[in-house]
């Protein structure tokens, strides 16, 4: 089981004092948060991709390459890589390069994003969102697995005898998660390729994500990648913690009430009741997170959103201390005890390389 954090990189005023960080401050804060994640023993740092204010992470691989140079163990990922508006060739090259720089500590989450205007900014039509996601990933998948690619589709110019460089590290492409909030087509895509499926698990009730994850698991088995409970699932989550739950609610309430993503809507109490948002004590976060398994089955990756809504960096770093010292050690132990032996652990470069070697050995023996 992998535990980590993801950031959307929003630049939001602190509602308690009205101060808005500069873009420079926010970018540097994201790096500090990533380094802190490794310090407190987390496994993953993931950054979103946005091309519009009030967000700053327009170039995830640039940031992750910088973080790679300053970390040793942390897996570097994305909370969304826009498969619809990025060129698959450029994704293939950028993440293979990052793989080499980070010695394999890289995977990525593909998604369509949640900002409609981004499509025309990059010469695309939002009405083609699903077809773009399907076609572009088919090409990306091939670019990482075939040394020479001939390809023709509807949404970009053809390729003839094309080789993406550099080739993936050790011949093993980065592991891909397909992220979705509401699209069954993306769950189907993840299942078809035997990739991971990441359910945002933030803004919707559990029943919504149960349907998406259930579809992915059934189709994963249908395509022959393993049993349904062996499918690779990741979940998001939102938490804010203090020793006493009353203190956590009191401190977080102004940030919730004014947050661009959910402020001025349901009350904090209603939102906590209807979604996975947990504001309270570390034990409440432990109990709520362990409960995800009851709804979604055994899963491989849990990411938390910690640095949003204008929360000051000092507060976020305090949250990471609590997460790393009091919450994640308990979750690791409990999830490990509950997971059946046949359910796989989260994929890493090392495990994928070993699997590729075993498969090659089986093929050689069969000759």
Description:
- With 367 residues, the chain is α/β, with parallel strands linked by helices.
- Helix content is 46%, strand content 14%.
- The protein contains twelve helices and 13 strands.
- Strands 3-2-1-13-10-9-8-5-4 form a nine-stranded parallel sheet. A two-stranded antiparallel sheet has the order 6-7. A two-stranded parallel sheet has the order 11-12.
- The chain starts with a strand and ends with a helix.
- Residues 1-21 are annotated as: Disordered.
- Residues 1-294 form the Luciferase-like domain.
- It holds the Pfam family Bac_luciferase.
Largest sheet composition? 9 strands, parallel
What does the average pLDDT come to? 94
Question: What's the gyration radius in Å?
Answer: 20 Å
Number of helices: 12
The strand line-up of the biggest sheet is: 3-2-1-13-10-9-8-5-4
Question: What general form does the structure show?
Answer: globular
Annotation, overall tally of beta strands: 13
Give helix % range: 40-55%
**What percentage of the residues does DSSP assign to strands (E)?**
5-15%
| Structural class based on helices, strands and sheet pairing | alpha/beta
Could you tell me how far the N terminus lies from the C terminus, measured between alpha carbons in angstroms?
36 Å
User: Can you tell me the residue ranges where pLDDT is under 50 for at least 5 consecutive residues?
Assistant: none
**Helix-strand topology string:** EHEHEEHEHHEEEHEHEEHHEHEHH
Organism: Actinomadura miaoliensis
Protein name: LLM class flavin-dependent oxidoreductase
Pfam family, one: Bac_luciferase
InterPro entries: Bact_Lucif_Oxidored, LLM_FMN-dep_put, Luciferase-like_dom, Luciferase-like_sf
């Amino acid at each position: 089981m992998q535990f980590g954090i993801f950031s959307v990189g929003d630049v939001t005023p602190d509602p308690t004092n009205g101060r808005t960080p500069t873009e420079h401050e926010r970018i540097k804060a994201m790096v500090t948060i990533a380094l802190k994640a490794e310090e407190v023993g987390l496994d993953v740092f993931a950054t979103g991709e946005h091309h519009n204010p009030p967000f700053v992470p327009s170039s995830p691989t640039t940031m992750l390459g910088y973080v790679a140079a300053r970390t040793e163990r942390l897996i570097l990922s994305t909370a969304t890589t826009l498969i619809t508006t990025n060129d698959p060739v450029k994704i293939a090259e950028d993440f293979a390069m990052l793989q080499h720089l980070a010695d394999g500590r890289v995977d990525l989450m593909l998604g369509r994003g949640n900002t409609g205007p981004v499509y025309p900014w990059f010469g695309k039509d939002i009405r083609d969102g699903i077809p773009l996601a399907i076609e572009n990933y088919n090409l990306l998948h091939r670019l990482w697995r075939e040394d020479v690619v001939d390809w023709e589709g509807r949404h970009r110019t053809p390729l003839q005898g094309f080789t993406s460089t550099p080739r993936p590290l050790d011949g093993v492409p980065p592991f891909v998660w397909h992220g979705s909030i509401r699209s069954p087509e993306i769950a189907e895509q993840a299942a078809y390729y035997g990739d991971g499926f990441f359910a945002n698990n933030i803004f919707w009730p559990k029943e919504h994500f149960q349907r998406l994850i259930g579809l992915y698991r059934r189709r994963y088995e249908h395509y022959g990648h393993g049993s349904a409970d062996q499918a690779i699932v990741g979940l998001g989550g939102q938490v804010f913690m203090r020793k006493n739950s009353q203190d956590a609610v009191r401190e977080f309430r102004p940030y919730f009430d004014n947050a661009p993503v959910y402020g001025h809507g349901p009350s904090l109490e209603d939102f906590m009741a209807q979604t996975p948002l947990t504001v309270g004590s570390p034990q409440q976060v432990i109990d709520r997170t362990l409960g995800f398994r009851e709804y979604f089955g055994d899963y491989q990756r849990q990411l938390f959103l910690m640095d949003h809504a204008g929360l000051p960096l000092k507060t976020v770093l305090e949250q990471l201390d609590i997460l790393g010292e009091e919450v994640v050690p308990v979750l690791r132990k409990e999830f490990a005890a509950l997971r059946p032996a046949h359910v796989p652990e989260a994929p890493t470069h090392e495990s994928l390389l070993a699997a590729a070697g075993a498969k090659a050995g089986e093929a050689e023996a069969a000759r």
